[in-house]
Amino acid sequence: MIYANNAATTWPKPEPVYAAHDRALRDAGVTTRSSSKAAPRGADALAAPRAVIAKFLNAPDPSRLLFSPGCTASLNQAIRGLPWEAGDVIAISGLEHHAVSRPARRVVRDHGVRLEVSPYRPGRPVDLDWLESILKRGRVRLVAMTMASNVTGDIFPSKAIVDLAHRHGALALLDGAQSAGVLPVDLKALGCDLFATAGHKGLFGPPGIGLLYIAPSADLKPWLEGGTGRDSGKHENHPGFPHAFEAGTHNVPAVVALAAGVTWIAEKGREWIHRTEQALCGEFLKGLERLDGVRVYGTTDLEARTSVVSLNADRVNPRDLAAWLAEHHDVVTRAGYHCSPLAHESIGTLPGEGTLRCSFGCFNTAAEVDALLGHLGKGIRELRK
Ligand SMILES: Cc1ncc(COP(=O)(O)O)c(C=O)c1O
Questions:
Q1: Residue 304 to residue 255: CA distance in whole angstroms
Q2: Nearest atom in ligand 1 to 74's CA
Q3: Which of 13, 126, 309, 336 has its CA 20 to 30 A from that of 152?
Q4: Atom number in ligand 1 closest to CA 148
């Protein structure tokens, strides 16, 4: 099998991730809410993993780095938890995933907020002049943008986005789902008010775990209430971090496995992962140039993109091509709209059938890229007959 769907979820995971998950699931009494003497072991099960991950992301305050069921949950909490008022504005890019655009449209419907969407051009995933003009008009409460596109791979100028938002009194939310573990993510340096990411992509955790960083500048209302193991005899939720935003029993095996993934990255070196993926992507893009009638979306500048490649071949439906690759050569890709219709509207593939997306991870090899190019060429010729 050739796995070229790492933008959806990374596979395989490093061995220590499987081991940590297995160990945590077998370890009796490891819940996080056991304040009783009978089960004291679980009380701090999250402290060490939280510290490891906070250090990796350089989060200014580890207690504000929250575990969630996933990036979608984190983004919903971040966007829908703000004190929206009618007439406020939320600005997003033209490449956003549903996990940003749908909660954004929800606050539009629920609170009379106005949604502004940045125009897109390859090599310029967000138009900073446009953003400044929107911010200057006033009432922008939130600028919410991904750090890298899950469709085109375009890398965003995240620091410039945050600074611009702050200069005009808006909050900045960054979606790190396609960047954490691959690109530099330094929360202190970025200075964003909110940061959300998935655990199961570049950080090599399992599904069902995500992260949300809430800086003191963001006044959020928790959207989930329940047991936190704090103030257990009281009716009101404990107000402190992280408890106020982590109601319910944690997915401890996933948290521990995520920390193992992050530890592995730190040992290997994030830079090494990035360069490995970049090299594979470079070979792939070079090979695609040799295929007849193939178009790549987004920038081809390797310094300005990740290893997520969206493409189309003339007169070939991308879904048919993905199915052909899977059926004939056991190649895993993903075709269609990638939960990002906005992005496909921006690149001109909706209306249309979307794209075929091939995304590489550090466990892919040059031989796999070579084989995939061969299979692609053959599949395109077959399907054009
Ligand atoms: C850019 C981006 N944001 C958010 C998400 C949502 O992540 P999850 O489905 O893990 O919640 C994804 C997942 O594909 C993504 O690519």
A1: 31
A2: 11
A3: 13
A4: 1
Contacts of 143 (CB under 8 A, 6+ apart): 90, 91, 92, 131, 135, 161, 164, 165, 170, 171, 172, 173
Q: Is residue 150 in contact with ligand 1, taking CB distance under 6 Å?
A: yes
Best probe residue, ligand 1, of 10, 71, 146 (max atoms within 8 Å of C-beta): 71
Q: Which atom of ligand 1 is nearest the CA belonging to 9? A: 14
Domains and CATH numbers, the chain: 2-9+269-384 (3.90.1150.10), 15-267 (3.40.640.10)
pLDDT in tens, 180-236: 999 999 999 999 999 999 999 999 999 999 999 999 999 999 999 998 888 889 998
End-to-end CA distance of the chain: 26
pTM (global) more than 0.90: yes
What is the bridge-based pairing of β-strands 140-146 and 89-92?
Answer: parallel
**Distance separating alpha carbons of residues 275 and 378, to the nearest angstrom:** 29
- CB burial readout 348-359, b (16+ within 10 A) else e: ebbeebbbbbbb
Pairing mode, if any, of strands 294-296 and 334-336?
unpaired
Q: What is the pLDDT of residues 243-260, one digit of tens each?
A: 999 999 999 999 999 999
Rounded CA gap, 101 and 379, in Å?
Answer: 34
